[in-house]
TrEMBL record:
The lineage of its organism: Bacteria, Pseudomonadati, Spirochaetota, Spirochaetia, Spirochaetales. Pfam families: TPR_2, TPR_8. SUPFAM superfamilies: TPR-like. This is Tetratricopeptide (TPR) repeat protein. SMART domains: TPR (SM00028).
């Protein structure tokens, strides 16, 4: 084969392989904000991967659920999440994603069930702070303000620099009439972000009681 032709063929082949690899990389597309592409890729993977390739299949389900949640397709996320749960009941990524899907759908009791399960399955998991924050929000809606205090405090133990969570901790304490504790949390929010107007208003509110 002519040397130039060989080189050209190799370049074209390599480009095709790289292109195919990129198309198959659902996680990469998810991270780039190409959620619909990630959904298409993962659905194809779930359809074609044998159940014996469980790890790869669960990876596909995980990215699928994340993408569906971002796209606000919560019913689909719940459907696929429950299918994934049947395949691998102890995959904490699926547990957490189901919690989020139910949370954003407005089903607090189901969301809380999966969030609580996640704290058992992955007490130091990548999304543990996020999960405790969601739990805090749910407890506020249920008027369980002390539970909310514990949940937000735990979220902040894992991620102490999230300004809004300090504000929500303060709010849960204010609702529980722990005004001193609320003031401490609101001040912490303002330490992190002095322009946080909600925390400033909250401080003024409790100081005029």
């Amino acid at each position: 084969m002519n040397k130039r032709l060989l080189i050209a063929t190799l370049i074209i082949t390599a480009s095709m392989l790289l292109s195919a690899q990129e198309k198959r990389d659902a996680l990469k597309n998810f991270r780039e904000g190409k959620y619909k592409v990630a959904i298409d890729i993962t659905l194809e993977e779930i359809e074609t991967l044998p159940d014996s390739s469980l790890r790869a299949k669960m990876d596909a389900y995980t990215v699928l659920l994340w993408s569906l949640i971002v796209e606000k397709r919560y019913d689909e996320a719940i459907t696929y999440g429950n299918r994934a749960k049947d395949l691998s009941p102890y995959d904490s990524r699926i547990t957490e994603a189901l919690g989020e899907a139910y949370y954003f759908k407005g089903s607090a009791s189901n969301a809380l069930k999966f969030f609580e399960l996640y704290t058992v399955q992955a007490p130091l998991g990548d999304r543990i702070a996020r999960v405790y924050n969601f739990m805090g929000e749910i407890y506020i809606t249920q008027a369980k303000y002390n539970h909310a205090d514990i949940a937000f405090s735990t979220a902040l133990y894992h991620a102490p620099s999230v300004t809004r969570w300090w504000y929500r901790l303060g709010y849960s304490r204010e609702l529980a009439e722990d005004f001193k504790g609320a003031e401490t949390a609101y001040n912490k929010a303002l330490d992190l972000d002095p322009s946080f107007a909600e925390a400033t208003r909250a401080l003024n509110r409790i100081r005029t009681r």
